[in-house]
Every structure is written in C-alpha cells, then in structure tokens.
Design a protein that fits this description.
76% of the residues lie in helices and 0% in strands. The protein contains twelve helices and no strands. The longest helix has 29 residues. The chain starts with a helix and ends with a helix.
C-alpha cells in the first residue's frame, strides 16, 4: 500500500470510526470499489490513530478516572462493559472463518440503521450506572457484535445506552472511552502476529495513515459530540441506505 492509499484509508477509517456508520463496513466497500485492499494489520493500526484521537478529545475525564480509580465509578463501569466485548471478540477472532464479513455486510448496515432510528425515540434522562449493571453488559455485547463489518461500534454502543434511557452526551463519552481497551488489545494482537510471522511492513505508509486517521477521528468526534448535544442520530439513519445498497451491488 503506497502513501496516498494509506492517507485515503486513514481518512476513511478516522472519519467513519466515530460517526455511527461503521468504519469496517466502509473500508470493505471502498476496497471493493477501488480494488485496493486494506490489510488487516493496516486496519488495526489505523484504529490506533483513532485511539489517540479519543485520548486527546477525552483527556479530562481520562485523567479524572486515572487520578481517582476507586471513587470514580466510570472505571468500574468500563471494566464491566469490556468483559462481554472481549469474550465475543475472541470468539470471532479464533472461530469465525475468514471472508465471512462481506456476506453479512448488508445485514450490519441494516441493523445500524434500525438502531439509529430506535434510539431517537427515548427520553434519555438517566446517568451511566444509574440503571444498574444490565445496560453496561448489553452495551459491551453490542460493542462485541460490532466486530462484524457493517454494524457500527459507536452507533451500537451509543444507541444501546440510549435504549436504556441513558443521557446522550454521557452515552457518547462512555462509548468513546469504551473503545480504548478493545483498540489496544486488537493492536497488541496484530503487532505480535506481524512480528511472529516476519511480515513485511511499510512503516512509513502505516505511520502516515495513522496520522490521517487521527485528525479525521478528532473531526468525527467533534461532529458526534455536537449531534448528541443538539439532536439525535436520525440524519445518520437516513444515510445508511447508501452503503446498504452499495454492499448489495458491489459485494
């Protein structure tokens, strides 16, 4: 993958990672349309770029959590929600046959659209943790299911919390913070596998793609934050038929 392709995929990844439209689904679509495949290692490293975007955008709550890990209940909530995510992600990693993603892509896009529409019907008046452990566990399951291309990770987690009437802005913050451990784990696994197999890696292209994903991710986070403050996700639901139809035609 050359430099321009890395930048292009980095921008696609960063922008669609936090918008509730599925970054993995869009990467598959773009690969099919352009004939240029984004390798799994490259995809994971682009996620690292978006990870840095989350850390910068949410540095204040992160510092609060790290300074007060016991009194700040958000750390406990993140651990609880991460457990089902890691279980599902491990099952997908080790047991799902390769190449299945493209066949379930339209289903993922359709589920994302349905979640976006359903989430707009709730009043969203509770804080994270106020309704007990169940919403946290279900949110973790939703994030784990987003391993399947087409189902948006941010859309699935934010909308799941919204279905439990969790406040929109708190749902957004929790969703973005919840992405940190799963991105770190995915990057660690891929790095270990890359070095173990002595795979050739163009670190220059990878680095440029990561930077592109970082800046695009920051922009996307800002858009989602503004949307959660002033509106709901209906506008994104109206967009979802586009990738859905493309996935039927192209894949």
């Amino acid at each position: 993958m050359n430099v321009w392709q890395s930048i292009f995929f980095g921008l696609i990844q960063g922008f669609t990672e936090f918008l509730p439209v599925s970054s993995s689904g869009h990467l598959l679509l773009v690969s099919a349309l352009t004939g240029v495949e984004c390798p799994l290692f490259m995809s994971v490293m682009l996620h690292v770029g978006t990870l840095f975007a989350v850390i910068i955008a949410y540095r204040k709550p992160l510092l609060q959590i790290l300074r007060h890990p016991i009194s700040d209940k958000r750390l406990l909530y993140l651990v609880i929600a991460s457990i089902p995510t890691f279980i599902i992600a491990a099952a997908v990693k080790f047991f799902l046959p390769e190449g299945v993603d493209k066949y379930i892509l339209p289903v993922g896009f359709a589920l994302t659209a349905a979640l976006l529409l359903l989430s707009s019907l709730n009043k969203n008046k509770f804080s994270v943790g106020e309704k007990g452990v169940l919403p946290l566990l279900i949110t973790g399951v939703a994030q784990g299911m987003a391993c399947f291309a087409g189902l948006s990770r941010s859309g699935a987690t934010i909308c799941t919390m919204s279905l439990f009437d969790i406040k929109r802005e708190e749902s957004g913050e929790f969703s973005f913070l919840l992405s940190i451990p799963v991105i770190l784990a995915g990057a660690a696994v891929e790095l270990i596998e890359a070095f173990a197999t002595s795979a050739e890696i163009n670190w220059g292209s990878v680095s440029i793609g990561v930077v592109a994903a970082f800046f695009a991710g920051l922009l996307a986070i800002g858009i989602v934050q503004k949307t959660l403050k002033n509106a709901d996700f209906k506008r994104f639901a109206l967009y979802m038929p586009v990738p859905f139809l493309l996935s039927l035609l192209v894949l």
